[in-house]
Amino acid sequence: MSNILEVQSLSKYYGDKAALNDVSLDVPKGQVFGLLGPNGAGKTTLIRIINQIIDADSGTILVNGEKLKPSHIKLIGYLPEERGLYKKMKVGEQLLYFAQLKGLSNADAKKKVRSWMDKMEIWEWREKRIEDLSKGMAQKIQFIATVIHQPNLLILDEPFSGFDPVNAELIKNEILELKDKGVSVILSTHRMESVELLCDHIAMINKSRKVLDGSIADIRQQSKTNQYHLKLRGHLADHPSNWQRVEGNFGYEKFLIQLNGHSTNQVLEEAIQFGDILGFEEVIPSIGEIFIQRVKDTDHE
Ligand SMILES: Nc1ncnc2c1ncn2[C@@H]1O[C@H](COP(=O)(O)OP(=O)(O)OP(=O)(O)O)[C@@H](O)[C@H]1O
């Protein structure tokens, strides 16, 4: 599979403080790529360099195998964390303006504005000024402004902020629909449940360096620690000392068990003696848990 974006040994300093330190990553075509990291890690700096808002001190960026150049801006749709709409401008005019700015003809821009506004069921807002919209409504307009010119690469910085759960779901589905059409997406967010739902691949930056990179499936598999959850019916008067009780209500008890050289069958043979087994499954850390662990690990390195 080819990459839409390749970042090679990118560094950026503010004074003598590194915002990005020798960061390299490949964004595969047609995937949702999660760019994660704690506050101040360097994500926005990287995104701004890709969008040619600021320059790197060293390193290279390739878009579709070509060195980053001004004409690439039209291939990219960027939703910045700080939204930038003109407050006094009317919704319809504003979307037309953004579409034309990104190279669409007047006729094409009009068609696209109409179809996106219909799709999002907001055509009746076209005469409203941005300053008269709620935060969530304005976010919808900003999302349309980001995708209206049919970019090949979408860079979305916290795209769900300000949305209620219904609209967040709508935006999530739009992102997946765009992915189905072949659009590549870089998603930067602190919402780990969105990362699990949407991303195929993630990279994590901590303190200006890349500290994790891989497919979600591989990263979760590699983060396993040989632990299992065992659920038994009822209330147990006694249990082995190496079982850690993690939950117990509603007529069952749940334990965390570290295999420690035993096989899963051996654990189950022992468990049968304590009661009716309701469940037994491997503990696979969530991306949120992996994130926290990785930050702790690399903070101490
Ligand atoms: N214009 C600037 N001048 C000086 N330092 C800056 C500037 N922009 C960013 N930095 C510093 O660079 C580092 C990386 O910041 P950046 O905004 O890229 O982080 P981030 O990962 O996007 O964080 P967040 O999740 O909080 O948005 C931080 O230490 C920040 O203080």
Short description, anyone?
The protein is an alpha/beta fold and 301 residues long.
List the helices and strands and how they pair.
Layout: E1 3-14, E2 17-28, E3 32-36, H1 43-50, E4 58-63, E5 66-67, E6 76-79, H2 91-101, H3 106-119, H4 135-147, E7 153-157, H5 165-180, E8 184-188, H6 192-198, E9 201-206, E10 209-215, H7 216-222, E11 227-233, E12 243-249, E13 252-258, H8 264-272, E14 277-282, H9 287-299
Parallel strand pairs: 3-8, 3-9, 6-7, 7-8
Antiparallel strand pairs: 1-2, 1-4, 4-5, 9-10, 11-13, 11-14, 12-13
Bound molecules: adenosine-5'-triphosphate (ATP).
> CATH class of the largest domain, please?
Alpha Beta
Describe the biggest sheet? 6 strands, mixed
Number of domains: 2
**Binned strand content:** 25-35%
Helix-and-strand structural type: alpha/beta
- How much is the radius of gyration in Å? 24 Å
The ordered string of helix (H) and strand (E) elements is: EEEHEEEHHHEHEHEEHEEEHEH
Question: What is the typical, i.e. mean, pLDDT?
Answer: 92
Unreliable stretches (pLDDT < 50, length at least 5) are none
Number of strands: 14
**What is the CA-CA span between the terminal residues?**
34 Å
Count of alpha and pi helical runs = 9
**Superfamily (CATH H level) name of the largest domain:** P-loop containing nucleotide triphosphate hydrolases
The kinds of small molecule bound in this structure are:
adenosine-5'-triphosphate
Form type: globular
- The CATH architecture of the largest domain can be given as 3-Layer(aba) Sandwich
**CATH-assigned fold name of the largest domain:** Rossmann fold
Q: Can you list the strand order of the major beta sheet?
A: 6-7-8-3-9-10
Q: In percent, how helical is the residue content?
A: 25-40%
GO molecular function: ATP binding; ATP hydrolysis activity
Family: Belongs to the ABC transporter superfamily.
Domain ABC transporter: 5-232
InterPro entries: AAA+_ATPase (IPR003593), ABC_transporter-like_ATP-bd (IPR003439), ABC_transporter-like_CS (IPR017871), ABC_transporter_ATP-binding (IPR050763), DrrA1/2-like_C (IPR025302), P-loop_NTPase (IPR027417)
